[in-house]
Every structure is written in C-alpha cells, then in structure tokens.
Amino acid sequence: MPAAETRTVRTPHGxxxxxxxxxxxxxxxxxxxxGAGGGIDARDLVALxxxxxxHDMTTILVEMPWVxxxxxxxxxxxxxxxxxxxxxxxxxPRVPLVVGGRSAGARVACRTGRHVGAVGVLALAxxxxxxxxxxxxxxxxxxxxxxxxxxxxxxxxxxxxxEMPLGVGVDPVEGADHGFAVxxxxxxxxxxxxxxLVERTAVFVERITxxxxxxxx
Length: 217
Description:
The chain contains 5 helices and 8 strands, in the order E-E-E-H-E-H-H-E-H-E-E-E-H. By secondary structure, the chain is of the alpha/beta class.
C-alpha cells in the first residue's frame, strides 16, 4: 500500500491536517473526521482508510485543529463545523465526495454534508444522546438531505441501532460498543468487526456513486 500523504491546512481556528490514503483509480473520495475523545488514529477510521483502497476508494482522514494543537477538549459544535468546512475547502476530488466521521465527527458530517457538496454521509457510532439520557436526542441532525448510512454498535451507550429514527439506514454491529470494541464472548472478533465496517461502507458508497470510468483523484 502506498504511504499516506499528509498535508497541513490552515483554518480560522488554527491548522489542521489532511491524511490521504489514495486509491490508484478511485470511484469516490471519503473525508472522515474523528470524535471529541480521540483523533484520526481511532480503530474504525484506520481500518476504513486502509481497507477502502482495495475497493477503489480514496480516504482522507481529517484532523481538527484542536487535536493538531494537542488540546484535550473539543470546541463548540459551530467551531467544529467551521473547521471541517475550511479543511474540506482544500479537497477538490474529481470523483464524488462522501463525508463522515465517528461520534462527534459523525455529527459534524451530518450538519455540513450538503454545504461541502457531498453526495452522501457515513455516520460511525453516531451519538444519538448522552449515555443514560435518551430524552436529549440529537436525531434531528440525522436529517441530512443526503443519502445517509449509520454503522452502530449494539452495545453503544450513546444509542443503539434500535433507537435510531424510522427511515434512517442503520447497519447494526453486533456486540460492539461506542468505539466498536467487542468482548471475547461476542459473535464477531475485533478483526471481523473492522472488516465488516469496511465492507458495509464500500457497499453504501458503491450504491450512491454511479458506475463510471475510474480516473486519478
């Protein structure tokens, strides 16, 4: 696999990073960002970046400025959205763009997908509500106006697959928690869960992007 390409990009709130895992002849580009409790080294983001290349999909992992600066606490949602839009302003793929992320990053992608010209949104471990507080629902953010797929662990304390609103396409990940970690007693082991994320994502992207002659990203 070719080495990832890293680029630093300035935003109104400091520099962030774009780490690109490039397919030779991609049919789509996915821009994925991280959650509020970690960075682009999260197991699901790394698995997608490495695995989607085999499906002719380029993946750009988007590191927000607060993480690049070494801070531990994420800023307000409006700031996250502004940073994501600024970072993606430097991404001009010649193939369809799909945006997504994990946890808080999924919320950012849902809120900004139409603004950045995406053709679809991928939500990994969408935090439907704070743990134990189902009345604090964020379901309205799932109304993206774009094709949307949610990959959600059945043990996610931020909301399981059965809690998602009707009409939202959800792929349950049996036994997985909010970080897609599984226990030894669960039906899938960790490698199988990560492989499932890659395969389900590839199916979603292939469905929403038309068949076309591949061309360099």
